[in-house]
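Bit of a strange request maybe. I'm writing a small parser for structure token strings and I need a real example to test against, not something I typed by hand. Could someone generate the tokens for this chain?
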Amino acid sequence: MPNVKIYVDETLYPEVRAPVMAALMPIRDLLCAGFEVDPPACQFAVIAVGAMPDLPQVNIELHILPKPERTRDVVLSVCTRLREILAEATAAHVAVRVMTLDPLTYVALK
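Reply from user aminoacidic:
Good idea to test on real output. This should exercise your parser:
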């Protein structure tokens, strides 16, 4: 269940909207392969935001459920590639943050 939020500085968003949207399928493929999930498990949001000029123009928040096979190395590898894909799409500095969810308290209604 990768939950991905991509925050793009509103001054950059108009010019990178199409490339970011085109990158979503490769990103989903990466997440499905890297975290061993099926496509319906993924959730995406792309959001234009007001950002401070001295911070990255693109920020990614990734929420995942912990699993034994999702080691730090696996997560780091997936996130490194995720950052590369969005850096290519936006030509901007991209930051990635990953949070693991508590499987005992996580609820999803689909």
